[in-house]
Design a protein that fits this description.
It comes from Companilactobacillus crustorum JCM 15951. The protein has 321 residues and is of the alpha+beta class. It has helices at 7-19, 26-33, 37-48, 51-56, 78-91, 96-107, 112-127, 138-150, 224-230, 250-256, 282-291, 302-318; strands spanning 57-62, 67-72, 152-158, 170-181, 184-191, 196-201, 205-213, 239-246, 260-262, 274-281, 296-300.
């Protein structure tokens, strides 16, 4: 038996150990503190009736093992955490280490009894998880969140997916927003030298130097909602108005074609074909059309039709070599 404690010392000691996951029964209490089960239950009553404790935790009694422990009430429901983690896993946005970190943090917000259930439902999925990029994203998200709020001017080097781009060029701009789409996080940057806003993929930023606070002129601030709607995967190229023939139902077309609405040329009586139109950046539009195969035919603009033909011809030529 350890050194005798007064009631306050004993109650605090029991509470601290239970918060660390230890469980107590009559035998353990007698060995550790030299008190009876009845005295132990009075100590538990003191803990249970503390309003601060009761808001966050509850005392759990296991009738089979006849022991007591502490469970967290959880700040959010198990279903909510499971949904968030399933969406996060499906996005492939974080590397494995970051996914494990977020999973642990979210599980700590759930009722202790529910944590094992969630872990069981996640095990198979997380074992086969393949991230979109291996680079750590969370530190960048945190840094850009600060720079956006502080309106910091950034000088940066960026590795573009476009081969002809000068990857060593230093650019200057002010980040105005972040968003997630298609497995990656993106930053909307107001470029000072070009006097316009472009979209950059977060993980492609290389060296970043943080400068002074800089206010963007009110008439130069982008319509963030519009930029998000007009950008599909790539934000480069010219801003175009497109019209596509989509070989499926109206509902499927509107769900799948980015930033679209039914065209006035659409035949409402034809349930197998939809004509949709909208606005996108040309590179994003080309990328999306190529991903759809024969499901989509471009009606306009001619520039997109030309770019599509050239790209497809290059693809065919690569198989002749």
């Amino acid at each position: 038996m350890k050194k005798p404690m007064n009631i306050n010392e004993r109650t605090i000691d029991i509470l601290m150990k239970m918060l660390q996951g230890k469980r107590f029964d009559a035998e353990i209490v007698s060995e550790d503190y030299g008190v009876s089960e009845r005295t132990f239950k009075r100590d538990l009553s003191v803990i249970r009736n503390n309003s601060i404790f009761a808001d966050e935790y509850y005392i759990d009694y296991d009738a089979t093992k006849k022991d007591y422990g502490i469970n967290s009430r959880g700040k959010i429901t198990a279903a909510t955490v499971l949904a968030i983690l399933k969406i996060l896993i499906g996005s492939n946005a974080l590397n494995k280490d970051e996914l494990k970190t977020v999973e642990k943090q979210l599980l700590n917000l759930v009722d202790s009894k529910e944590q094992a259930k969630i872990n069981k439902l996640l095990t198979t999925t997380t074992e086969s998880y393949v991230p979109a990029v291996n680079k750590a994203i969370l530190p960048l998200i945190g840094s850009f969140a600060d720079w956006i709020n502080e309106r910091r001017k950034l000088s940066f080097i960026y590795t573009s997916s476009i081969e002809t781009t000068d990857h060593s060029k230093v650019r200057s701009g002010v980040p105005v927003n972040m968003y997630f789409a298609n497995r990656h996080f993106y930053v909307m940057m107001y470029l000072i030298e070009k006097d316009k806003t472009l979209v950059y993929r977060l993980d492609r930023f290389q060296k970043i130097d943080v400068g002074q606070v800089m206010n963007i002129p009110a008439d130069k601030k982008p319509d963030e909602g519009r930029v998000l709607n007009e950008t599909y995967m790539l934000g480069g190229g010219n801003y175009i108005h497109y019209k596509f023939r989509y070989f499926s139902s109206k509902a499927v077309a509107l769900n799948n074609v980015p930033n679209s609405h039914l065209s006035k040329d659409d035949d409402p009586n034809n349930s197998k074909v939809a004509i949709v139109e909208g606005d996108l950046f040309s590179q994003g539009a080309l990328f999306w059309v190529l991903s759809q195969g024969t499901q989509v035919k471009v009606i306009e603009p001619e520039t997109l039709i030309r770019d599509l033909k050239e790209t497809l011809q290059k693809t065919l030529n690569s198989y002749k070599q």
